[in-house]
Amino acid sequence: xxxxxxxxxxxxxxxxxxxxxxxNDPAVLLIMGLGAQLVYWRKGFCERLxxxxxxVIRFDNRDIGLSSKLEGRDTGAKLLPRLLRFQVGLRNAAGxxxxxxxxxxxxxxxxxxxxxAHVVGGSMGGMIAQIFAATHQHRTKTLGLIFTSNNRALLxxxxxxxxxxxxxxxxxxxxxxxIANAVRTAKIIGSPxxxxxxxxxxxxxxxxxxxxxxxxxxxxxxxxxxxxxxxxRYDKQITAPTVVIHGQADKMMRPTCxxxxxxxxxxxxxxxxAGMAHDIPEPLWDDILGELKTNFSKVx
Length: 300
Fold this sequence. Notes:
By secondary structure, the protein is an alpha/beta fold. The chain has helices at residues 43-51, 79-87, 98-111, 124-135, 160-167, 175-189, 198-211, 215-228, 232-235, 255-264, 285-296; strands spanning 3-10, 13-20, 27-31, 55-59, 117-122, 140-146, 242-247, 269-273. Strands 1-2-4-3-5-6-7-8 form an 8-stranded mixed beta sheet, sandwiched between helices.
């Protein structure tokens, strides 16, 4: 499969992207989550979309992967008070917000001269996608949201084990140490019904590390999420056909969080998969893609 790579400008920032498929086919913009590079939309997953006659664009959000890093763009405020405000749906001061990241996605479409796209977001990428669909309605054909939340007040927190795994940096900062920690995290937040092989988890973690490793960028992205607070105000503005997909076994982003999104977006469809947690396991690719394709079909 031919992959076109490039850099789009969002203001002064560089946004690294990959563009696959026929440029004349309907575009699908994939937005990944916290600390996750574009490679987390696995190549095989993207290939299946391309084989269905779609143009697929995946990209690195600001502060991760090969996109611009924004050192120093944080408030320095203590985390606990910000978390408490976030838990009740309030915004926090931040170096940048998810709204800014949604504008990065729009700048990427501008660069590629794509007027409208099917928008699909996972986890924090699903939060960015909600904002995009509300603030760039004319550019959103359909909206697909996978294991995400709208961060409205008093939604359940992640399970402690999953939260610790996702937020604890490796004490061993060598290449092998960081990769081993990423594999441990993948085992804890991954789908118990569809566990990946050890070799596959090591290969995925190695690919990400060798491409780019920047834990400070992930921390700044987390501040952006805290800075945006509840997205309920955006959900009420979304008009694009929407499907919300969630794993029933997800303890990182509880199913209640995804259900809150589905309830808030008028006319959205709610789909869950048993045994799926906070990843997109390969055995479910065809099922998940089938749900997305059904949603795509609602707009020519």
